[in-house]
Amino acid sequence: MAAPLAPRGGAGVAGRCWLVLLPSLLLVLLLARSAGALVEGLYCGTRDCYEVLGVSRTAGKAEIARAYRQLARRYHPDRYRPEPGDEGPGQTPQSAEEAFLLVATAYETLKDEETRKDYDYMLDHPEEYYSHYYHYYSRRLAPKVDVRVVILVSVCAISVFQFFSWWNSYDKAISYLATVPKYRIQAMEIAKQQGLLRKAKEKGRNKKSKEEIRDEEDNIIKNIIKSKIDIKGGYQKPQICDLLLFQILLAPFHLCSYIVWYCRWIYNFNIKGKEYGEEERLYIIRKSMKMSKSQFDSLEDHQKETFLKRELWIKENYEVYKQEQEEELKKKLANDPRWKRYRRWMKNEGPGRLTFVDD
């Protein structure tokens, strides 16, 4: 007669419990192994830095430095000579080099107060693996120079480059205007009235060559143009307050000014219902046209007067003006011979069509 079978319920429950706990146990083992490997790679590894230098944990900086110099002279690869009965770590040149590197690592660890504090904490709390790993590499990988100094130097360098770049553009604009007959003739008339051209053409001992006279006249004309013409936009005269460094320094002031201006705008025009002034109307027009302040300032005065006459700060009037501008642009393009040739080419050839010419 066959023996009765043992109940299978208990074995099944135990097997399922092991299956549930097995991944957790494996994860714990892996983490413990990786944590231990990380600690072995920190500081002096499995050796105690104090024991490497032969000092106690209460040793001062002078004692640590003295022990390091003695061991460094002893185990330096170029000067090492094994002594009879030497039981130190370096018995061969190769092992002496390893001992020298270990001594140097121990000294680098203990000479800095912050690093030594972290190392002492690791000795007292060996179970906090990841904390020791973080402190070790955060100090090793930290930049040697203060980040604030790097940012300040970078901002100053960019500001200097901005200033010279803008000044170069301004000089190019003045040189171009000096070649335009309209502005050159007006500048020469002003120079004659002020008697500047006579000084350039002095005779006698101070007589100058034609090239020198021409260069001096050009400089006089350029200086008059600089003083009489207000260039706006990208070629305007560079201002110190427009540089990046001063923009950053003045950012809090500009932010507070904008908040005050915005509150006044809400109070005056949204709450009290006041009428817009000329400045406010131009601001609304500029925002509707999606133009920057420098772009809008570069427009001619008669254009701004036209905007005000047509009351473009009103949304309906601006939509009509915008549609008119689009229609006018279409008419110009339709009558432009270059645009006609382009449309004819697009119709006949197309951008992706290949044609072969038979000779």
TrEMBL record:
InterPro entries registered for this protein in UniProt: DnaJ_domain, DNAJC25-like, J_dom_sf
TM regions (residue ranges): 13-32, 149-167, 244-263
Cell compartment(s), UniProt: Membrane
Main location class: membrane
Domain J: 48-123
CDD domains for this protein: DnaJ
4Fe-4S found in the keyword field: no
Top-level taxonomic group: Eukaryota
SUPFAM superfamilies, sorted: Chaperone J-domain
UniProt-listed GO biological process terms: protein folding
Keywords of the record: Chaperone, Membrane, Transmembrane, Transmembrane helix
Membrane topology: Multi-pass membrane protein
Gene Ontology CC terms, in alphabetical order: endoplasmic reticulum membrane
Record-linked PROSITE patterns: DNAJ_2 (PS50076)
The family this protein is said to belong to: Belongs to the DNAJC25 family.
PANTHER family for this protein: DNAJ HOMOLOG SUBFAMILY C MEMBER 25
Protein name stated in the entry: DnaJ homolog subfamily C member 25
Organism: Ailuropoda melanoleuca (Giant panda)
